[in-house]
Amino acid sequence: MNILVTGGLGFIGSHTVVELIENSHTVVIVDNLINSKIEVLSHLETLVKQSIPFYQIDLTDEEALTQVFEENKFDGIIHFAGLKSVGESVEKPIEYYLNNLVSTMVVIKLAQEFSVGKFVFSSSATVYGDQDSPLRETLDLKETTSPYGETKTMGERILKDIAKINPKLAISILRYFNPVGAHPSGLIGENPNGIPNNLMPYITKVAKGDLKQLDIFGDDYDTIDGTGVRDYIHVVDLAKGHVAALELVESGVHTYNLGSGKGTSVLEIIIIFQKVNSVKIPYKIVRRRSGDIATCFADVTKVNDELGWKTTLTIEDMCRDMWNFEMKFDNSTRVL
Ligand code: NAD
Ligand code: UD1
């Protein structure tokens, strides 16, 4: 299939481009580079040993995007593009609603006009709000803690309305849990701007010595060791989940959790990261972070049964590959 990958130079999009091409699909990338660098394209091309068509376009620009659809015939779209910082979305709600919702509406509108058969949407576990894990796709969605989260809930709703008027369209809504890791080649990965907010990128910077220590946000949760428990998923496993959804989902809206189904605590992550990479992670326990929940992990029964997809990579793999990517930066150009 020929697939339009929006946000294809970003963290998850770039890894999915590799999996798509390795599974004999062809890819066209659209990205406005608001949170990625053009060098990612050449790193991708090195990895897949072919050139990849790329358009630097903002998806909210319907006229420019229409031209892309006129120049290419797409069988499917994977829509990754969006702004994703929870904290920033609280500061800049309008930017988040505008960018994430308008881009989704423009892309799905053109998908219909140009009779594209398949659409895959990047959603998030954040749409569940604070509910007991394991989280199943059948749960009612709760108010999320941020405008970012609301753009995901609203994006899902928009797609469900589209499905009502276009029942043949195959729509996959994929709710990611905590994507981490990097490609084992070390050529692509994630490098957030400034000081990272999320655990794994923060640990990596502490291990490298760029940051002094990790602040653990609370050790008094009702969890195995008192620290927060999350469902971490290697970005390469996550990317494979997109290929499965694209290839297997038929008409209608189908919602799947993409997670491992297992929870890991902050202290467990620190121990594993130190061990596999032979580094030291100094840490100190501080107050809970506002808005955090104790535990969040997926029920993956539906995606296992219907798509035959499950994670194969371990927390050890995630820690090793993130560190490998971080270390390559010292020797070459860092790309994400
Ligand atoms: P990312 O920021 O690395 O990638 C997103 C890409 O989209 C970037 O390259 C950015 O330049 C591009 N983009 C943003 N707005 C655009 C626009 N208007 N037009 C064109 N390009 C635009 O993020 P990611 O981690 O790869 O996340 C991909 C998707 O998955 C996002 O929708 C995100 O909300 C969702 N998601 C991510 C996580 C996570 O933890 N990484 C978790 C759940 C859901
Ligand atoms: C983040 C997002 C959430 C998204 C999810 C999956 C935020 C605020 N929330 O949440 O919307 O759905 O990823 O992508 O970004 N921790 C520390 N110290 C740190 C950083 C984190 O102790 O410096 C702890 C947290 O309290 C939590 C765990 O590590 O228990 C994971 O945190 P993080 O990586 O930010 O992910 P989420 O909280 O799941």
TrEMBL record:
Its EC number is 5.1.3.2. Homodimer. Its cofactor is NAD(+). It holds the Pfam family Epimerase. InterPro entries: Epimerase_deHydtase, NAD(P)-bd_dom_sf, UDP_G4E. Residues 3-259 form the NAD-dependent epimerase/dehydratase domain. Belongs to the NAD(P)-dependent epimerase/dehydratase family. Keywords: Carbohydrate metabolism, Galactose metabolism, Isomerase, NAD. NCBIfam families: galE, PRK10675.1. The keyword NAD applies. It is an enzyme of class 5 (isomerase). Coiled coil: none annotated. It catalyses: UDP-alpha-D-glucose = UDP-alpha-D-galactose. This is UDP-glucose 4-epimerase. Pathway: Carbohydrate metabolism; galactose metabolism. The keyword NAD applies. GO terms for molecular function: UDP-glucose 4-epimerase activity. It comes from the Bacteria.
